[in-house]
């Protein structure tokens, strides 16, 4: 039997089982908490094989305490990066992410605050550079959503809050990071499938994610001469604290079942794209969006 024909080794980790349905659940707070979700989102894939692709790098990740942000933090640590995570007030989730990063042998600092505040964004970047010495990768991932059935139900306060977190926060954090980014640095933004196909109950959220796509494309051209690449990831339905904190309990049970793969994604299925976009593997990719959405065809 040739080497190519050898059966898989019995000691190789098996791919995780991906849930296709969930128990009814709802959290009466935003941001939601990952620690109380059932099941806990999958953040650390047992089959991912790191290769030291981010050795010696420093990454700042907004929304890094849970969901996709936690998975990015873990996979970056696996690849050799030290990590700073920004979160609003989910202290328990943030400390768990810190523990998981440090378990991989990397440094992690946690920074609590509101990315919608430009003064805080400046403080977060300064703290990152002071404690971790530099900044190579900025991941703009923090977001919030507030479903409403009609446009009339979206209050001025909600509209402003959603835009402040989802798009103003990206501007503020990127502006604060720019003096510390250098040739070869990467900026990665989290967009959404809703930016391309819309969402009838997420009018303001979808609008902000459309803005993220346009910002990504425009900033990539603006920074090309500096050798700083800007790209984005547009996840489809993903099992994160946003879901039980913004959906009715019965809605949660079938979350994500309407895509071709018939299930929602898990955070650890998103994270490798953020590694790719942060490394020289994607050296000829700029101003682009990777679509990880369970098979939904998006022409954009």
Question: Mind explaining what this structure looks like?
Answer:
There is one protein chain. This protein has 300 residues and is an alpha/beta fold. It is 36% helix and 12% strand. Strands 3-2-1-4-5-6-7 form a 7-stranded parallel sheet, sandwiched between helices.
Give the secondary structure arrangement, pairings included.
Blueprint: E1 58-62, H1 67-78, E2 82-87, H2 91-103, E3 108-112, H3 118-132, E4 137-140, H4 156-177, E5 186-190, H5 194-197, H6 203-223, E6 229-235, H7 242-246, H8 249-252, H9 267-278, E7 289-292
Parallel strand pairs: 1-2, 1-4, 2-3, 4-5, 5-6, 6-7
Helix pairs in contact: 1-2, 1-9, 3-4, 4-6
Strand content: 5-15%
Summing up helix and strand content along with how strands pair, one would put the structural category as alpha/beta
**Largest beta sheet: strand ordering:** 3-2-1-4-5-6-7
Unreliable residue stretches: none
Number of continuous helical runs: 9
Instruction: Please count the beta strands (DSSP E, at least 2 residues each).
Output: 7
Radius of gyration computed on alpha carbons = 19 Å
Give a short account of the largest sheet.
Answer: 7 strands, parallel
Q: What average pLDDT do the residues reach? A: 95
Which tags fit this structure?
300 residues, alpha/beta, 9 helices, SDR_fam, oxidoreductase activity, acting on CH-OH group of donors, NAD(P)-dependent oxidoreductase, NAD(P)-bd_dom_sf
């Amino acid at each position: 039997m040739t080497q190519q024909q050898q059966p898989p080794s019995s000691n190789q980790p098996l791919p995780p089982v991906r849930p296709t349905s969930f128990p009814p659940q709802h959290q009466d707070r935003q941001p939601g908490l990952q620690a109380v979700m059932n099941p806990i989102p999958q953040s650390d894939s047992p089959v991912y094989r790191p290769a030291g692709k981010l050795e010696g790098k420093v990454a700042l990740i907004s929304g890094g305490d849970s969901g996709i942000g936690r998975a990015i933090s873990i996979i970056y640590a696996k690849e050799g990066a030290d990590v700073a995570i920004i979160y609003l007030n989910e202290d328990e989730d943030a400390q768990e992410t810190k523990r998981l990063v440090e378990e991989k042998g990397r440094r992690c600092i946690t920074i609590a605050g509101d990315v919608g505040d430009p003064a805080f964004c400046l403080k977060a970047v300064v703290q990152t550079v002071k404690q971790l010495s530099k900044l190579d990768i900025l991941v703009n991932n923090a977001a919030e959503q507030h479903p409403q059935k009609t446009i009339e139900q979206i209050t001025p306060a909600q509209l402003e809050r959603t835009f402040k977190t989802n798009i103003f926060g990206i501007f503020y954090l990127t502006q604060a990071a720019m003096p510390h980014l250098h040739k070869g640095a990467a900026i990665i933004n989290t967009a959404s499938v809703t930016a391309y196909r819309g969402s009838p109950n997420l009018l303001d959220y979808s609008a902000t994610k459309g803005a993220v796509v346009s910002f990504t494309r425009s900033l990539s051209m603006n920074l090309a001469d500096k050798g700083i690449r800007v790209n984005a990831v547009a996840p489809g339905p993903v099992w994160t604290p946003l879901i039980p904190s913004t959906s009715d309990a019965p809605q949660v049970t079938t979350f994500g079942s309407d895509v071709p793969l018939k299930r929602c994604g898990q955070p650890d299925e998103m994270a490798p794209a953020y590694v790719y976009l942060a490394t020289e593997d994607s050296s000829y990719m700029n101003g682009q969006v990777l679509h990880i959405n369970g098979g939904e065809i998006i022409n954009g």
